[in-house]
């Protein structure tokens, strides 16, 4: 019997070990790699070509939207299932817009996870309360990304890094500026886009227009 190759990426060792135990008990599943950060997960994916990747939404080095997009580009046949403690629709929207095939909260049962993995591997859609609620919300909202035109080049750069899940300290180190400067720019971005916090920015980033804008600025 051909087994489903699975990659696990989560920065918490106890979560990785727990998932490995649950999955290893299944004769049709095979954990081919388990990594603690996004960059290591990408390297592992390149070498082991997993059928399904279980990704946390927030991890060191690389995580969230950026990791999902890069993994989809690197391994287009891999089905991406986000398993996260963040169950807010803002995060779900951003993950699905970036290319994730499904999204589960970490409070989900083991059986729900196993069923999701098998469904995705079989090429079937994954209907979960989080994804269903997110689609329903999007049908009743009309969030615009027009205000991004008012952002300066530096503000767009800060926005892109925030959307990728980086902290103010990580952004400061990457750009060679002070953390307080990053916080000031981030506050300006929030104000100009009409959002109040990072979660709301993720919601806006879930729109393909804004994701494309962030990607263009990165090139």
Please explain how this structure is put together:
The relative contact order is 0.12. The longest helix is centred in the C-terminal third of the chain and has 15 residues, at 179-193. The protein has two domains: 4-139, Rossmann fold (3-Layer(aba) Sandwich); 146-218, Winged helix-like DNA-binding domain superfamily/Winged helix DNA-binding domain (Arc Repressor Mutant, subunit A, Orthogonal Bundle). The protein has helices at residues 13-24, 38-48, 64-74, 89-98, 110-121, 129-139, 153-163, 168-175, 179-193, 198-205, 208-218; strands spanning 4-9, 29-35, 52-55, 79-84, 102-105. Residues 134-146 and 207-219 have low confidence and may be disordered. A five-stranded parallel β-sheet has the order 2-1-3-4-5, sandwiched between helices. The termini are far apart. It is α/β, with parallel strands linked by helices and 219 residues long. It has eleven helices and five strands.
Low-pLDDT ranges: 134-146, 207-219
Principal-axes geometry comes out as: elongated
Measured by DSSP, the beta-strand proportion falls in 5-15%
How many domain units?
2
Largest sheet: 5 strands, parallel
- What's the Cα radius of gyration? 18 Å
CATH topology of the largest domain: Rossmann fold
Total strand segments: 5
Helix content: 40-55%
Rounded mean pLDDT score:
81
CATH superfamily of the largest domain: Response regulator
| Level-2 CATH architecture of the largest domain | 3-Layer(aba) Sandwich
